[in-house]
Amino acid sequence: MAERRGLLIILSSPSGAGKSTLAGRLRAWDPSIRFSVSATTREPRPGEQDGREYYFTDETGFKRMVSDGDMLEHAHVFGNFYGSPRKPVESAITSGTDVLFDIDWQGAQQIRNSALQDSVLSIFLLPPSIAELHRRLISRAQDDPDTVERRMKRSWDEISHWDSYDYVLVNDDLDETEERLKTIVTAERLRRPRQPGLTDVVRRLQREYEETAL
Ligand code: ADP
Ligand code: 5GP
Q1: What percent of the chain has pLDDT over 90?
Q2: Would you tell me which CATH number, out of the four given (3.40.50.10140, 3.40.50.300, 3.40.50.2300, 3.40.50.10170), belongs to the domain 8-35+98-213?
Q3: 77 lines ligand 2 (CB under 6 A)
Q4: Mean pLDDT across 133-153
Q5: What is the rounded CA–CA span in Å between residue 103 and residue 110?
Q6: CA 144, 137, 120, 189 torsion: positive or negative?
């Protein structure tokens, strides 16, 4: 049996606040963290690869996965369907591997209400200002102006769910946010229920007390 069950690390934010950037940095820091590759009906952006950023699928394929019970959660975001395939997540966490999700508040809520709720660590990223959020969406240069405006309009809806998350970080300075994120993950891994090996350590300490008759 694994030392501990893996964590489901959920990162949410309005689009453009920095989820993918920070997800990348977290995985560079600890390559054992597995990224949950979502399925989506949206078109790939330049540079995106099927199976790496997303599994790109059509609506029929997506709906089949949902009706077959293959999605841990799913949602309709910005006119497209997005969902997290269940199997890779379940096998990772039973083998003690942490899984990172870049998903919206609806997905986070569904996972928090699922049987996996005890393993959830949810983190929300806020932009330092709305002007900066707009600047980041434009500077990413991957969406046309209409898409950027649609994402800006949706950003308040996403932000309004900030208080359902375990942690909230204002992603102003990127290096600082990265450090805070790593601190959170390090501490959460050390929570008592997440260290099943502790019982054996304490039993051994107890035996040592008895043997030395202190
Ligand atoms: P999301 O995944 O939340 O949509 P991204 O990670 O794609 O957002 O970030 C959007 C843009 O903002 C990218 O160009 C990224 O390099 C930039 N960015 C992310 N975090 C910061 C930060 N703290 N300061 C400045 N730019 C940032
Ligand atoms: P994007 O199109 O910018 O990659 O993602 C748009 C939004 O969909 C982001 O807020 C992202 O977090 C969210 N998203 C991506 N994958 C999933 C998923 O599997 N489930 C849910 N609920 N949201 C997702």
Answers
A1: 86
A2: 3.40.50.300
A3: yes
A4: 88
A5: 11
A6: positive
- Our answer on whether the CB atom of 151 is closer than 6 Å to any ligand 1 atom is no
Tell me how many degrees the CA angle 194-90-108 measures, rounded to the nearest 5.
Answer: 80
Question: 37 C-alpha to center of ligand 2: Å?
Answer: 10
The full set of domain ranges for the chain reads: 8-35+98-213
Residues 41-87 pLDDT 10s: 999 988 999 999 999 999 999 999 999 999 999 999 988 999 999 99
The alpha carbon of 82 and the centre of ligand 2 are apart by a number of angstroms equal to 6
Decide: helix, strand or coil at residue 47: coil
CA distance 171 to 163: 16
Residue 23 in contact with ligand 2 by CB distance below 6 A: no
Q: pLDDT class for 152, splitting at 50, 70, 90?
A: very high
Ligand 1 proximity of 140 Cβ (cutoff 6 Å): yes
This prediction has a pTM of: 0.94
Ligand whose nearest atom lies closest to the CA of 125: 1
Please give the Cα distance from 39 to 57 (Å, whole number): 7
Instruction: Name which of 199, 186, 8, 190 is nearest 97 in CA terms.
Output: 8
Under the banding of pLDDT at 50, 70 and 90, the label for residue 1 is very low
Q: Is the CB of 15 under 6 A from ligand 2?
A: yes
- DSSP string covering 53-65, please? TEEE--HHHHHHH
